[in-house]
Design brief:
about 100 residues; mainly alpha; 2 domains; about 65% helix; about 0% strand
């Protein structure tokens, strides 16, 4: 399997979301246009299985760095989602986004 770069050629933009949107997991889950609880649980189980497989292979330094990477990726994903929701609300003339 060839290595996929995490960033674009300029090293300025992440490509992870592009890869995720092309993954079988995402395509299958989005087939009906919505995500239900069972699909979220299934994806979490897949994520946990990968963590269990990979975590024991990491030394302490790698573990710390990848933990930071995963956390920052989660922050970025949530921020993107909230920004998109905010933009959608603003385009509809609704101010404020309450969670």
């Amino acid at each position: 399997m060839s290595r996929k770069s995490w960033m674009d050629e300029q090293g300025e933009t992440t490509l992870i979301d592009d890869y995720a949107s092309q993954s079988t997991s995402f395509i299958d889950a989005m087939a009906d246009g919505k995500i239900d609880e069972s699909e979220v649980q299934s994806q979490e189980a897949k994520l946990v299985a990968l963590m269990k497989k990979i975590e024991p292979t990491l030394d302490d330094k790698q573990h710390a760095e990848i933990t930071e990477l995963l956390c920052e990726m989660s922050v970025y994903s949530v921020m993107q989602l909230l920004h998109t929701a905010y933009q959608a609300r603003m385009s509809q003339g609704v101010s404020g986004l309450k969670l």
